[in-house]
Amino acid sequence: MDYKTIIYKVDGYIATITLNRPDRLNAYNNEVLGELMDAIDQVRKDDEVRVLILTGAGRGFCAGGDISGFKDASKPHPALESLMDMREGYHQLALSLSRLDKPAIAAINGVAVGGGLNMALMCDFRIASDRARLGDGSLRFGFLPDDGGTYFLPRYLGIEKALELILTAELVDAQEALRIGLVGRVVPHDELEKAALELARKLAEGPPIAQRLAKRALYKQLNMELPSSLEDLALAAQILSHTEDREEGRKAFREKRKPQYKGR
């Protein structure tokens, strides 16, 4: 598929999706959402791809929804139409990216606001440029975070800090985002791509099947009781015990060498 609003690139085991509307700080519209979901589906289906990097072109990671791209943006939409737009648009992206069982890294190169911030929170790792600014400005427009903010932010920040970020509608700089837990690392702007690729390559060297099962278990078990959790892990271990990668891991350990995992 030829994309118009994103750039999709695969280099070895690493896929990179770059939001490519720099003149709009990579704000999303329906076309962006459709192309993003298609690219994420390619990552999901391609067994050669082991890690995803999500980033933005220019000065922004993603400035949220592009209201200038919505029809009659100055007028309220009919309630049912607005509901269906969200269900079939951004909400499907949230579900698609959250269900991706391969490691995903957000390389936050600039402003990440509203839905843009939540795209980053849907990823497993967040590395921010020291120029990045993050937050949710929905309440500045008399609205609320209908793109997942009320779900993701309390899970990373706790309820009080999430309320502060949402109700004040203030943006925080990269260092404050690191301090409160919005991002895992901050690097100088010119080193962001290098840092994201270094982490991606490290992850790509791991056993793909075990990584996918481990990621799925970690997220699923956030809402499980211990007996069910242990039962799931026992089943996953049975799957892994019959893979070539499991034998390669044992063999490499005995031979004191780096394992070469093939995802089989």
Describe this structure in words.
- The chain is of the alpha/beta class and 264 residues long.
- Helices cover 47% and strands 16% of the residues.
- The strands form two sheets. The chain has a six-stranded mixed β-sheet, with helices on both faces. Strands 4-6-8-9 form a four-stranded mixed β-sheet.
- α1 (30-45) packs parallel to α3 and α5 (149-157) packs across α6.
- The protein is globular, with a radius of gyration of 19 Å.
- The two termini are 28 Å apart.
Quick description:
The chain is an alpha/beta fold. The chain contains eleven helices and ten strands. Helices cover 47% and strands 16% of the residues.
What is the element layout, followed by pairings?
Blueprint: E1 6-11, E2 14-19, H1 30-45, E3 51-56, E4 60-62, H2 79-88, H3 90-99, E5 104-108, E6 111-113, H4 115-122, E7 125-129, E8 133-135, H5 149-157, H6 159-168, E9 171-173, H7 174-180, E10 185-187, H8 192-204, H9 208-220, H10 226-241, H11 244-254
Parallel strand pairs: 2-3, 3-5, 4-6, 5-7, 6-8, 7-10
Antiparallel strand pairs: 1-2, 8-9
Helix pairs in contact: 1-3, 3-4, 5-6, 9-10
Instruction: Quote the distance from N terminus to C terminus.
Output: 28 Å
Helix/strand-derived category reads alpha/beta
The DSSP helix count reads 11
Biggest sheet record: 6 strands, mixed
User: Could you tell me the strand content as a percent range?
Assistant: 15-25%
Shape: globular
Query: What are the low-pLDDT stretches, counting only 5+ consecutive residues below 50?
Result: none
Number of strands: 10
